[in-house]
Design goal:
Pfam families: MOSC. GO terms for molecular function: catalytic activity; molybdenum ion binding; pyridoxal phosphate binding. This is MOSC domain-containing protein. The protein contains four helices and 13 strands. The chain is mostly beta strands and 181 residues long. It has one domain: M1 Pyruvate Kinase, Domain 3, CATH 2.40.33. Strands 1-6-5-11-8-7-13 form a seven-stranded mixed β-barrel. Strands 4-3-12 form a three-stranded antiparallel beta sheet, with no helix packed on it. Strands 9-10 form a two-stranded antiparallel sheet. A hairpin with a 5-residue loop joins strand 9 and strand 10. The relative contact order is 0.26.
């Protein structure tokens, strides 16, 4: 079982690509981040609402690893926590390598279940031209590799603050790799 740390938390009550950093956020079971525009039982991302507004919201909480910011900095991009719209920035966990159904215990109470990979969109290039290519690549087999974080649903609510520990609870096997949600 691995562990890591919450470095930053962010939320925004209005539709905007970036999310301001906060001193803390409250996760609400079955909904997401209290006061965040993407919180809810059904989908809140505009493109998904247009497809089918009754779909379950598998994207209640967006998590990104801080190590990604260091990787893109090497290519000349400056990205800070909250800039890519994530709610929780982590350090010390290979988020992209987690299997579907992994539970992340954030702080003393909150538990989220990983539903899949964030599918990076063109808005990332609107934020910084060329950045999309840094967070969306291909592996040696030509398969798409999504690096812009993971999505989760809230199982148990609670407060989450920078500095909180993260405990990883892997699901029973066999493990299913993350797919875009």
């Amino acid at each position: 079982m691995s562990s890591g740390t919450v470095t930053t938390v962010s939320s925004n009550g209005t539709y905007s690509f970036t999310k301001p950093n906060r001193e803390g956020i409250t996760l609400l079971a079955g909904l997401g981040v209290e006061g965040d525009v993407h919180a809810g039982v059904t989908v809140k991302h505009r493109s998904r609402v247009a497809q089918d507004p009754t779909q379950p919201n598998l994207r209640q909480v967006h998590l990104i690893h801080a190590e990604l910011f260091e990787d893109v900095a090497g290519a000349g991009f400056e990205v800070a926590p909250g800039d890519l719209g994530e709610n929780v920035t982590t350090r010390g966990i290979d988020l992209l390598g987690l299997p579907t159904g992994t539970r992340l215990h954030l702080g003393a109470e909150a538990v989220v279940e990983v539903t899949g990979l964030r599918n990076p969109c063109a808005q990332i290039d609107n934020f910084q031209h060329g950045l999309l290519k840094q967070v969306l690549g291909r592996d040696e087999n030509g398969e798409i590799v999504r690096k812009a974080g993971i999505m989760a649903v809230v199982l148990t609510g609670g407060q989450v603050r920078p500095g909180d520990p993260i405990r990883v609870e892997l699901p029973e096997g066999p493990h299913r790799p993350l797919e875009k949600v």
